[in-house]
């Protein structure tokens, strides 16, 4: 996916994903369930690395009739000569808690040179309850429990949260997201408001947001101040990402720049965007 998705699916938390066996794939196609009518916002992004088109991201945000995001889906894959050297196909489906924006259930499928892995995360509704992670790799199933910050995001919902935030220059905030393997703490800061052009939406007013992402940081959480990163992990691992989000249409990421091994600098740009109204009947036909 975009910057956060690539960080969340990166080799940094690949662990033992080195099996060449074909693993069970979770159902990551877009579901047909939902309200009687909904809106689908469809995005396509091009990924440029090594001075060439390196991949493509297709994403969809489903919203109910009240305009609340309910389901997120994304697929990220390398293309062309980059795919020959670093074949990658990552998919994620996120079901969001109604009116909250963070996930209740997330399904991922990862296929890259570091191996194949299928993950299903079930997030608790109540505080002090553990998140359940079911994984399938190397032909084996495993279930583990982990306590995480309340209201923790997955990579997709974190990106939606950042891009939907009402912000201004100088604004800063922290938020957590869980990749399915590692917990990450994001320190975000809005540093500028600029005009930016993309093939998908033409010229747009945009907020430039700098993200510093820490893997397994020290953190605190309180009802008053929310989630805060207090210190990096012992290994000092961090990544910096620059995002440009639309100031005119909340929830739209226009452009992103970051570094990712082994591709070096990666540039992601919105290539197309369209909205469609979907009835329950149309969803049922798509599912069949």
Architecture overview:
- The structure is a single chain.
- The protein contains four helices and 16 strands.
- The protein is globular, with a radius of gyration of 18 Å.
- It is about 10% helix and about 55% strand.
- The strands form two sheets. It has a 14-stranded antiparallel beta sheet with strand order 8-7-6-5-4-3-2-1-16-15-14-11-10-9.
- It has helices at about 5-10, 80-85, 155-165, 280-285; strands at about 35-50, 50-65, 70-80, 90-95, 105-110, 115-120, 130-135, 140-145, 170-180, 185-200, 200-215, 220, 225-230, 240-245, 255-260, 265-280.
- The chain has one domain (about 5-285).
Mean pLDDT: 85
Dominant shape = globular
Q: Any low-confidence stretches, pLDDT <50, length ≥5? A: 1-26, 30-35
Order of helices and strands: HEEEHEEEEEHEEEEEEEEH
Task: Describe the secondary-structure layout.
Layout lengths: L2 H6 L28 E13 L2 E12 L5 E10 L1 H6 L3 E8 L6 E10 L2 E8 L8 E7 L2 E7 L8 H10 L7 E7 L4 E16 L3 E14 L2 E5 L3 E6 L6 E9 L6 E8 L3 E16 H8 L1
Antiparallel strand pairs: 1-2, 1-16, 2-3, 3-4, 4-5, 5-6, 6-7, 7-8, 9-10, 10-11, 11-14, 12-13, 14-15, 15-16
Features:
single chain, 288 residues, mainly beta, two-stranded antiparallel sheet, 10% helix, globular, disordered N terminus
Short description:
The protein is mostly beta strands and 288 residues long.
């Amino acid at each position: 996916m975009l910057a956060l998705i690539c960080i969340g699916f990166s080799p940094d938390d690949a662990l033992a994903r080195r099996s060449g066996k074909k693993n069970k794939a979770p159902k990551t196609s877009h579901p047909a369930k939902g309200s009687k009518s909904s809106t689908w916002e469809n995005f396509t992004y091009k990924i440029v690395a090594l001075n060439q088109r390196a991949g493509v991201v297709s994403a969809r945000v489903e919203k109910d009739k009240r305009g609340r995001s309910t389901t997120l889906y994304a697929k990220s894959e390398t293309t062309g000569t980059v795919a020959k050297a670093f074949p990658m196909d990552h998919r994620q489906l996120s079901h969001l808690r109604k009116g909250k924006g963070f996930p209740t259930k997330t399904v991922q499928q990862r296929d890259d040179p570091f191996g194949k892995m299928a993950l299903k995360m079930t997030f608790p509704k109540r505080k002090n309850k553990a998140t359940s992670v079911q994984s399938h790799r190397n032909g084996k199933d495993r279930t583990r429990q982990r306590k995480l910050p309340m209201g923790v995001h997955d990579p997709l919902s974190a990106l939606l949260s950042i891009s939907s935030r009402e912000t201004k220059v100088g604004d800063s905030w922290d938020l957590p997201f869980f990749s399915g393997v590692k917990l990450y703490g994001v320190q975000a800061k809005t540093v500028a408001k600029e005009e930016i052009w993309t093939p998908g939406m033409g010229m747009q007013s945009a907020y430039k947001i700098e993200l510093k992402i820490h893997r397994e940081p020290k953190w605190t959480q309180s009802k008053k101040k929310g989630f805060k990163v207090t210190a990096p992990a012992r290994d000092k691992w961090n990544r910096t990402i620059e995002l440009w989000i639309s100031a005119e249409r909340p929830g739209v990421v226009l452009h992103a720049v970051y570094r990712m091994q082994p591709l070096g600098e990666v540039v992601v740009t919105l290539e197309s965007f369209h909205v469609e109204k979907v009835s329950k009947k149309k969803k049922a036909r798509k599912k069949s």
